[in-house]
TrEMBL record:
InterPro entries: ALK/LTK-like_GRD (IPR055163), FN3_dom (IPR003961), FN3_sf (IPR036116), Ig-like_fold (IPR013783), RTP_Phos/Ushers (IPR050713). Its main location: membrane. It is a single-pass type I membrane protein. GO terms for molecular function: ATP binding; transmembrane receptor protein tyrosine kinase activity. The lineage of its organism: Bacteria, Candidatus Magasanikiibacteriota. CDD domains: FN3 (cd00063). Coiled coil: none annotated. This is receptor protein-tyrosine kinase. The chain crosses the membrane at residues 110-132. Residues 652-740, 741-828 form the Fibronectin type-III domain. Keywords: ATP-binding, Cell membrane, Disulfide bond, Glycoprotein, Kinase, Membrane, Nucleotide-binding, Receptor, Signal, Transferase, Transmembrane, Transmembrane helix, Tyrosine-protein kinase.
């Protein structure tokens, strides 16, 4: 972008790099002006400027600040304008414009202003929170209350209560409904009630079985004798059902059609028969109709529906039927159909029957059609008449008439029908029971009442009844349920309940039914049940209690709320409370609820409802009274066990003012504040463990323990008065404790110009700043760590060091340690040893005889498999080594002349640092030492991304001590070398090799270590025939010696599997309750999943071995990176001799498993093959790549 500085009011275009989006409005120039001012200032920054330019720079600073504040306060208006099409030309899409503002360099000032205002607003919100929530006045206490939890003293119309004497112990009340009981609670009084059955109207809804309801009593029914009446005379008879009959048996036959002998002889169709049982009641009238048969050759229509005959033909037979409830055809309950009349011609007449009469030449009647309802049709020419029936048959023509249909009402039972049955006229027979001349009663009978609906209640009590036994027996049973009809949810019968007997086992069911069992030993008499009373209890449905008047003692008291403790079982509703107040105890307001009217009530027992203004206005409300209104359905009672009127007391105390801190030490201090009037005690809040909050009645408090040194503690104080009201919180104050003096300062020389220092923090916190001074009181550096590498020391010079812990309170005062023991830095030599942390300082060094000074630092540490390797960077001529592991070396050129002049030998590497030796390679004028010996390599097999097998060389460890042992108890050790192109070698414990000389190269030799416990570095310098040299080292730890070697190498403690902590037991299986998966806990505290049962049982013998733990505990164990169930034994190239024939091996980073046979590795290609040979997953050993590739590749296992 190109921008020009412009004068005020000098409008110029400001161009953008995007030609499709540009701005010309002068309102935007203030942003480019700010940007230009900033760029101009930047141009003056960082170089020598003249006095005039200096004044210009000051002017620019002022203008930048001025423009910034303009942008800050006005940017919300401008940013909206920027998004409007009238202010932005070109692409006016709002989203595109927003993107431009967010990304274009020209709008950087706008973005700065927006961010500043956002931070400003957040700051305002934060400050508002502190002011409102941290330093605002505390809410008024709610313990200035009148609480009543006992009403056992009863009604008192005279005595009043007051706050001073009766705020919690008042036990009286002014009045209460008779339905209430007031003692430790206010609740309904339990009432006893009953339901009674004593008249016929009560009993008639029940069910009788050989029992009878008569004259308000229940007795046994009389025994009736079987009887029958036959009606054979044609016509109609009214018959009344005798007592004791609830059904009668009916036998009804229709008459035969009239015979005809005019030419052919036709006897006429026979009538149909129907038999059935029909329900009736004693005293009911039944109408009987007996059908008529006309004389032979008579064509006159007979009684009850037979059709008239045609010329030379006879009439159809009349039907027989019984009618109930009336005499209309529609009142018939049973019908026997009549037969058709005979005819002059040969076609015979049809008979009566069910469901239809048969056909003559006229069709028979059916259940839904025929000649007519109850009437047969007249015959045609030489045709017989149709028979009567439910529906009559049709008259015939030149043949007999059709038969009528028989019928039975749907309420009839045991229905049978016989077609073509009756000859002659119709016949009706009724069978029934009739009373004996001398009354005889059944020996037993049962009466079951109807289901009796009760109101909601609390439970049954007793069953009472009155009986006239006449020397006989009556027992009662009873049951209950909650449905209006008896179903499977009802109780079983409670049997043989005596009068006055307990029936409480029926519970609180809403519906009840009883059963009376009557029996007699003298059938000439019957016992009678005269009345039944079922007793139960219930609660009243409403009641009111009015409290005693309460004098608050404050003319301007303000009521906060009314709350109460209630119990509302099922069947109750919320308690309702109202209040009223008085200025003098005699003139009262109306009772009122939340809105101030008498029609509303307080129902929130937690006090959440707002009180009306008339009793919260601090005017004329000194006297207070409440009333309680309870309601219930009757099945249970609400109860109130306490009622509290909460009121505002006087104003709380003022906020305390914290003064100075006294008695400050490393672990103690005293907090002081000014006295606050009307205070009972003070509450101190602070950030001290076990002292979150303390109280005292004094105006100071000493914290004499649990304080950490050099730590800042914050304090706040609140005053509390006799009403448990808290003041506003004091202004927060803070101070620091003093630091402790550092302890145990240890110094170790680190090369020629550096020393490594460590010390104990002595409980000082991690943010404590430590300053390091030498014995000349020269500040050498500062750190918050407890270790430091001092640099810029003088070679061959003695030093002691002290460490000062700086006061966090003022960043100046200090507590100083004792001086360290004296150390002497190394003098320039042919070799120098360093121990440095990664990313730490870069100390200087120079070799003896050289004027060149160099620096070295550990620039990076990487982990290759389980081995750490360090990269070094050396300066003057910048040189970087590649990653070197312990025992690896490299020659580098520090002078920059193309000839290697320094050997880097890595002695040990940890995750945080490295110990290494720098050795000078001898240089002779005019001579070139080239082609140094090199480490032996092995070929490592791998696959490319395309799946092509390839091999790459990989170096092996050059100096191997005691076949790879890490420790020894013997000073005599065995050295083995893996190097090519060496003809001579020199061995020394001194990296300068001052005490050794070259000897002929041997692949192995013996060496004696110096005495003393510690890690010993053995240096070996190899030389080629061309004169090139390189130095390698090996490290072994000598133990069990009588003394320690002060010159031993300091190594980080190696990781031992047994030392790895684990929250679950190693080498054990675990699962959770929520998931069936089973995991194995390895020796390095990782978990591996069992993928099948075969794997599990190759490891354990029973599922009982599995431990159950929580999801969180198992989840805290990291997943193992090794394929499931391979024993964690990491073997290196030094362990090759330990691998026996048949060993199973694999590496960390590939799933392939091999078996060692004939000194070759053979791949086991799949799990099926693995299981076929009964290999065990637990026997697999984990090896380094170097060890794997030491074995030639053999054929796959099949």
């Amino acid at each position: 972008m190109r921008t020009r500085m412009v004068k005020k009011n000098d409008q110029k275009d400001i161009y953008s790099n995007d030609p499709s989006w540009y701005v010309t409005d002068e309102k935007l120039q203030r942003y480019w002006l700010w940007h230009g001012l900033w760029k101009s200032k930047s141009g003056l920054q960082g170089r020598n400027i003249s006095q005039v330019e200096h004044r210009q720079k000051l002017y620019l600073n002022g203008q930048i600040i001025k423009q910034y504040f303009k942008d800050f306060f006005l940017f919300p208006i401008w940013v909206v304008k920027f998004l409007l099409p009238t202010y932005m030309k070109g692409k006016n899409n709002v989203f595109s414009n927003i993107k431009k503002i967010l990304t274009q360099k020209e709008f950087h000032p706008l973005r700065v202003a927006a961010l500043s205002q956002f931070v400003f607003l957040c700051s305002l919100v934060f400050i508002g929170y502190i002011v409102v929530f941290q330093y605002s006045s505390r809410s008024l206490a709610t313990d200035y209350n009148w609480t009543q939890s006992d009403w056992s003293a009863g009604v008192d119309l005279v005595t009043t209560a007051d706050y001073t004497n009766n705020s919690t112990n008042w036990t009286k009340y002014y009045a209460a409904s008779s339905t209430l009981e007031a003692s430790s609670t206010i609740a309904f009084a339990l009432q006893t009630t009953s339901t009674v059955e004593t008249v016929d109207g009560d009993f008639n809804n029940g069910t009788t079985a050989t029992t009878t309801v008569n004259s308000g009593s229940i007795g046994l029914s009389e025994v009736l004798s079987a009887s029958s009446t036959v009606f054979s005379t044609t016509g109609t008879v009214a018959w009344v059902v005798p007592d004791g009959n609830s059904s009668i048996d009916l036998d009804v036959s229709g008459s035969q059609g009239s015979a005809n002998t005019s030419y052919y002889t036709d006897a006429g169709g026979k009538g149909g028969r129907v038999q059935a049982t029909y329900p009736v009641s004693a005293g009911q009238t039944v109408y009987i109709y007996v059908g008529e048969r006309s004389p032979t050759n008579s064509k006159v229509a007979p009684f009850n529906g037979g059709g008239a005959g045609g010329s030379n033909s006879s009439a159809g037979g009349g039907a027989s039927d019984i009618r109930v409830g009336g005499t209309a055809l529609t009142d018939r309950i049973i019908v026997g159909g009549g037969g058709g009349g005979g005819s002059y011609d040969s076609t015979p007449a049809g008979y009566g029957g069910y469901p239809a009469g048969s056909n003559g030449t006229g069709a028979g009647g059916t259940q839904s059609s025929g000649y007519a309802l109850g009437q047969g049709g007249s015959g045609g020419s030489r045709g017989g008449g149709g028979g009567g029936g439910y529906y009559g048959g049709y008259g015939g023509s030149y043949g007999g008439g059709g038969g009528g249909s028989s019928y039975a009402d749907p309420n009839a039972t045991n229905v049978t029908s016989t077609n073509n049955y009756r000859s002659g006229s119709g016949l009706v027979s009724i069978s029934y029971f009739a009373p004996a001349a001398i009354a005889t009663y059944y020996s037993s009978g049962i009466f079951t009442s109807d289901v009796i609906a009760l109101e909601l209640h609390t439970g049954f009590t007793t069953l009472d009844y009155t009986a006239t036994l006449n020397g006989q027996t009556i027992t009662l049973d009873i049951r209950a349920g909650n449905s209006a009809t008896v179903d499977g949810t009802w109780t079983d019968w409670t049997t043989s309940v005596a009068s006055g007997g307990d029936i409480s086992s029926l519970g609180t069911h809403r519906y009840v039914q009883y059963r009376a069992n009557l029996s007699t030993n003298d059938t000439s008499v019957t016992p009678t049940l005269d009345d039944v009373t079922i007793n139960y209890t219930k609660y009243p449905t409403s009641g009111t209690l009015i409290s005693t008047t309460f004098d608050s003692g404050e003319a301007n008291i303000i009521l906060n709320n009314i709350s109460w403790t209630e119990n509302l079982p099922d069947g109750t509703v919320d308690a309702q409370l109202q209040l009223r107040t008085s200025p003098d105890g005699s003139t009262w307001t109306d009772w009122m609820g939340p809105n101030g009217s008498s029609s509303t009530y307080f129902t929130d027992n937690t006090g959440g409802e707002t009180l009306p203004e008339s009793i919260t206005d601090a005017t004329d409300d000194e006297w207070i009274q409440y009333q309680v209104i309870l309601s219930s359905t009757g099945s249970s009672t609400p109860s109130i066990s306490s009622i509290t009127l909460a009121m505002n007391p006087p104003a709380p105390p003022g906020a305390p003012v914290i003064g100075d801190f006294t008695g400050v030490t490393t672990s103690t201090m005293t907090l002081n504040w000014e006295t606050v009037t009307d205070t009972v005690y003070y509450i101190i809040s602070l950030t001290v463990p076990e002292y979150t909050s303390v109280t005292t009645t004094e105006i100071s408090y000493t914290f004499d323990s649990n304080l950490e040194p050099n730590t800042r503690y914050y304090y706040e104080v609140v005053a509390r008065d006799q009403y448990d009201q808290d003041s506003a919180t004091s202004t927060q104050r803070s101070t620091y404790t003093n630091p402790n003096s550092p302890l145990a300062v240890t110094a170790i020389a680190n090369g020629q110009t550096a020393a490594n220092l460590t010390w104990s923090a002595n409980s000082n916190p991690s943010d404590t700043v430590y300053q390091i001074y030498d014995n000349n009181a020269v500040l050498k550096g500062s750190t918050t760590s407890t270790s430091y590498t001092v640099t810029e020391l003088t070679a061959g010079t003695s030093y002691t060091f002290t460490v000062r812990a700086i006061y966090n309170a003022d960043n100046t005062s200090y507590e100083e340690s004792d001086a360290s023991s004296s150390i002497t830095t190394a003098v320039p030599a042919k070799a120098v040893i360093f121990t440095l942390e990664v990313g730490g300082p870069a100390p200087s060094f120079n070799f003896v005889g050289s004027t060149e000074s160099h620096t070295v630092e550990v620039s990076a540490i990487v982990q290759v498999g389980d081995v750490y390797k360090a990269s070094l960077t050396l300066h003057s001529n910048d040189v970087s080594t590649g990653p070197l592991g312990a025992g690896e070396s490299a020659n580098v050129d520090l002078s920059g002349n193309g000839i290697s002049d320094t050997t880097v030998t890595m002695n040990s590497v940890t995750a945080s640092g490295a110990n290494f030796t720098l050795s000078a390679i001898p240089q002779t004028s005019g001579a070139t030492y080239s082609n140094p010996p090199i480490a032996k390599t092995i070929l490592v097999e791998s696959l490319t991304q395309d799946g092509v097998a390839t091999t790459t060389p990989q170096s092996v460890k050059v100096v191997v001590i005691n076949d790879g042992d890490k420790t020894t108890q013997d000073t005599k050790i065995h050295l083995r070398f893996n190097i090519d192109n060496a003809i001579q070698m020199a061995i020394s414990q001194d990296p300068s090799f001052e005490d050794s000389s070259y000897q002929s190269y041997q692949s192995s030799t013996e060496w004696a270590l110096p005495e003393g416990n510690g890690a010993k570095v053995v240096y070996v310098r190899f030389r080629s025939k061309e004169g090139g040299t390189i130095t390698y080292s090996g490290v072994i730890t000598l133990t069990d010696q009588s003394n320690d070697d002060p010159n031993a190498l300091l190594l980080e403690k190696p990781l031992v599997i047994e030392d790895i902590p684990c929250s679950l037991e190693k080498q054990q299986p675990y699962k959770t309750k929520e998931h069936p998966g089973v995991y194995y806990i390895t020796d390095i505290c990782t978990k591996r999943a069992f993928s099948n049962t075969d794997m599990y049982f190759s490891y354990f013998t029973s599922w009982d071995d599995v431990h159950t733990t929580s999801i969180s505990s198992l989840g805290a164990i990291p997943d193992d990176t090794v394929e499931p169930f391979m024993t964690m034994r990491l073997l290196t190239i030094d362990d090759r001799t330990t691998l026996t024939e048949g060993a199973l091996i694999k590496t960390f980073d590939t799933p392939k498993v091999y078996i060692i046979q004939d000194n070759q590795r053979h791949w086991i290609p799949n799990e099926a093959t693995f299981n076929t040979y009964h290999y065990k997953w637990t026997n697999i050993l984990i090896v380094e790549d170097e060890l794997l590739h030491a074995f030639d590749v053999g054929s796959d296992v099949e």
